[in-house]
Each structure stands twice: as C-alpha cells, then as structure tokens.
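Render this sequence as a predicted structure.
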Amino acid sequence: MGERLYTQTHEWVSLEGNQATIGITDYAQSQLGDVVFVELPKVGAQLQDGDAFGSIESVKSASDLYSPVAGAVVEINGELQKSPESVNKDPYGAGWMVKIELSGAPSVDLLDEAGYTAMTVGNPH
C-alpha cells in the first residue's frame, strides 16, 4: 500500500496509482469501542469527495463514513459483514473498508500522520 493520509473525520486513505483504499483510523475505532456492524456501498457506486459511503455501528454509537476521494467503488471488504471486529483488531489491514478507482486528484484536505496525530492529541473530540 502507498503512504497513508488522514481526514479530519478520522478516515484513512492509501493511494496507489489510480486506486485508493479507505478505512477508519486506529484512533476512531478506539473511540467507537467494539464495532458490531459496518454498512458499505455497492461496487460501482459513484462517490464525490466528502460523500457518506456507509456507516459503522459500535456498542457505544453509530457514525457515518466519509470518502476522502472521488471515484467509483471497485471493491468492498465483504469480510466485515461476518467479522466487523476486524476494524478494532486491524484498522489499517484486515479492517479496510472500500477501494475506489479515482476520478481525479483528492480535493479534501488530507493530513499526513504527524498532522493527524497533532489533531487527535490537541483535540481529542
């Protein structure tokens, strides 16, 4: 995977060529607690930067998931239907959510790891 970048809404994106893999950050999964359900879009869905592409539910709350890039969903992590806890155990690996074929360069402000860490430490909510 390519370098991970982060959104202010706690998604991560790894860009590799014309494809982006997206999930939620370790910080986000720790704030949510035990994940019990992940709703993902259908393959072929067209997304714009900032569009909600699904939702995640934990024992504590439910949250929307937002795409940091525009493009078409080319793959979803179907394993999350059976094992949503993968998001807690391995948010940057087995807990990935969708892969998107990019329709252009990301226009959402993406943070590098240092910027994201500074944001979550400086503003824990």
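Summary. The beta strands are 4-6, 11-16, 19-24, 35-39, 46-47, 52-58, 62-66, 71-76, 98-102. The CA atoms of residues 18 and 102 lie 5 Å apart.
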